[in-house]
TrEMBL record:
UniProt KW Transmembrane keyword: no
PROSITE patterns xref list: ALDEHYDE_DEHYDR_CYS
Family: Belongs to the aldehyde dehydrogenase family.
Known catalytic reactions: salicylaldehyde + NAD(+) + H2O = salicylate + NADH + 2 H(+)
UniProtKB keywords: Aromatic hydrocarbons catabolism, NAD, Oxidoreductase
InterPro entries assigned to the protein according to its UniProt record, in alphabetical order: Ald_DH/histidinol_DH, Ald_DH_C, Ald_DH_CS_CYS, Ald_DH_N, Aldehyde_DH_dom
Gene3D superfamilies named among the record's database cross-references: Aldehyde Dehydrogenase, Chain A, domain 1, Aldehyde Dehydrogenase, Chain A, domain 2
Pathway info: Aromatic compound metabolism; naphthalene degradation
Identification of the protein by name: Salicylaldehyde dehydrogenase
Record domain Aldehyde dehydrogenase: where: 20-478
Length: 488
């Protein structure tokens, strides 16, 4: 066993029904560092039997968990927060090694996940019912809000801790049982680490389980299983459509946060230097492997050349390579094949008329930050989610044209607009067909107390704050007839 493997050896088991145990599948999961290709840990995958046991115990233990005093649930979340604080450096190192996160990104992800937990600790006290009158004499109508039951969470690999915690912490705080199926590329930070944190925080055994396995073996069963009431998924639109279809066949609710072809509109009166700084961050943070990352930067024709020169100059200052180096801004993609895919996108974009201004080369899984200018709105590269460090600069002939280009995408997750006239920015934002729009900021924003979600092909449902409470609870009508009524 190498030094690297020995460091990660504790993460070679599944967490099922409150126990650290080996999966019972014949298949194995190899956890590989995306930057250097080193094997971090290998584990036996979960089987259908493991999945059944996880769901069954989450159902039974979850029913008891929903009955405990509100303060007990809140205290578990607070103790989990303490675990996050005590283990901050461990968590950051795991995110760097397993997800290819730069240190800058890993620290921000830790902060975001922590903030979600902090917000969720208040949720037990924010579940509200209602008492309503009636048209029937002597009847009292009570609308009660309760835990939904069991939540199935399918986790992503790009922001594994943050985006899984966005479902897990609210769901637990509100009294649900939870089963996580983490991305196979990040089984630790998208599942096992979360389970360990809550286990150490005193969460009752069985309320939370993690089953890491191949989609071919347990993927469909995870969604179609009769126990979970809701399936939460963050990932690609293609996979999300399949999950939504399967969940619909079994009459299950979904929370789907899917892909994005996000755009920033830079209007003719924008502060160009500020817009450039925001655009570079929104495009290249975590190598562009973010559902909210900027794909298209749509710039008014009158300032396009100036913006482009300053944008390229800024991009040339970005350090890329080893994610463990604190100065690195652009780290590795999750797989070398992703770099190859994006190089093909860059080549095809140039054939369609785009000009390569910078980058366009890869070393293993590290793709240089790349800038393409003179990208037509209908260029194939501008019609898809890139999920990598490739910036597309598009000319717009005025505000109306910019909006037309912006809204031509099938996606609608996040977006932004830059202008020195804030009221104009608000009016433009109202016309942008996305779930989230940011004036004088870039598209990568997520606050635990504010709604998060997209439109069109970017997903269904909302996360965050009151919207999370709505998503992970149900309401029921219980009426009380205080005096017997006549029916005939």
């Amino acid at each position: 066993m190498t030094l690297v493997q020995s460091k990660f050896a504790k993460w070679n088991k599944q967490f099922i029904a409150g126990e650290w145990t080996e999966g019972t599948s014949d298949k194995t999961i190899k956890n590989i560092n995306p930057y250097n290709g080193e094997l971090l840990v290998e584990m036996k995958a979960s089987s259908q039997d493991d999945l059944d046991r996880a769901y069954e115990t989450a159902y039974k233990a979850g029913k008891e968990w929903a009955k405990v005093p509100l303060g007990v649930r809140a205290q578990v979340i607070y103790k989990a927060l303490a675990q996050m604080d005590e283990r901050k450096e461990e968590i950051i190192e795991l995110l760097i090694a397993e997800a290819g996160s730069t240190r800058i990104k890993a620290e921000r992800e830790w902060t975001a996940a922590r903030r979600i937990m902090e917000e969720s600790a208040s949720f037990p006290y924010r579940m509200k019912g209602d008492i309503m009158g009636s048209d029937i004499p002597g009847k009292e109508n009570r609308v009660v809000r309760e835990a939904k039951g069991v939540v199935g969470m399918i986790g992503p690999w790009n922001f594994p801790l943050h985006l899984c915690m966005r479902t897990v912490a609210p769901a637990l705080a509100l009294g649900n049982g939870v089963v996580i199926k983490p991305a196979s590329d990040t089984p630790i930070t998208a599942g096992l680490l979360i389970a360990d944190i809550f286990d150490q925080a005193g969460l009752p055994k069985g309320v939370l389980s993690v089953v890491s396995g191949s989609g071919s073996e347990i993927g469909d069963a995870f969604v179609a299983h009769p126990i979970p009431k809701i399936i939460s998924f963050t990932g690609s639109t293609e996979v999300g459509k399949g999950i939504g279809k399967l969940a619909g066949e079994h009459l299950k609710e979904v929370a789907l946060e899917l892909g994005g072809d996000n755009a920033m509109i830079v209007l003719d009166d924008a502060d160009i230097d500020r817009a450039v700084e925001a655009a570079v961050f929104g495009k290249f943070f975590h190598q562009g492997q973010i559902c909210m990352a900027l794909n298209r930067i749509i710039v008014d024709d009158s300032i396009y050349d100036t913006f482009t020169d300053k944008f390229v100059a800024k991009v040339k200052t970005l350090q890329f390579g080893d994610p463990s180096d604190p100065k690195t801004i652009v780290g590795p993609l999750i797989h070398e094949k992703e770099a190859e895919r994006l190089l093909d996108v860059v080549e095809q974009a140039q054939k369609a008329g785009a000009k390569l201004l910078y980058g366009g080369k890869a070393n293993g899984s590290v793709l240089e930050p790349t800038v393409l200018s003179e990208v037509a709105a209908d260029n194939p590269a501008a019609q898809k989610e890139l999920f990598g460090p490739v910036a597309l600069l598009i000319r717009a002939k005025g505000e109306e044209d910019a909006l037309r280009i912006m809204n031509s995408s099938e996606y609608g997750l996040s977006g932004s607009v830059f202008t020195t006239n804030l009221e104009r920015g608000y009016q433009v934002a109202q016309q942008m067909e996305t779930g989230m729009i940011h004036v004088n900021d870039q598209s990568v924003n997520d606050e635990a107390h504010v709604m998060f979600g997209g439109e069109k092909a970017s997903g269904v449902g909302r996360f965050g704050g009151e919207w999370a409470i709505e998503k992970f609870t149900r309401t029921r009508w219980i009426s009380i007839q205080h005096q017997y009524r006549d029916f005939f």
